[in-house]
Amino acid sequence: HDALPISALTVFAAAVGLGGTAQAEPPTKVTYQLSGSAPVADYVSYQLEGGQRQEAHVTLPWKTDFTVIGARVFVISAQSPGSITCTILVDGKVVNQATANGAPARTVCST
Hints:
Elements (H helix, E strand, L loop, with lengths): L5 H11 L10 E10 L3 E9 L2 E9 L2 E8 L5 E16 L2 E18 L1
Antiparallel strand pairs: 1-4, 1-5, 2-3, 2-5, 5-6
């Protein structure tokens, strides 16, 4: 009897996923926030869907929003004199927050 080669079955399973049906995931809103004791952060570096982004001399408080589809890793890091706090929100809920103090203070948030 004719059987499908295992490679064909593997490709089919990968295409439809383990659930058996392909479904579009709803978009996720991600917000990065920075606040601190200084009026300006020396730098901020953060991950977007299209890659890493870096900015210098960022006025605090600072935030940016973007939308992604599917599971992603989100990372933001920043440096500032005094204290600095980073926050990551996913669909309006805080998923990570960190504060650092120092001269300079360096903070990192990730999911």
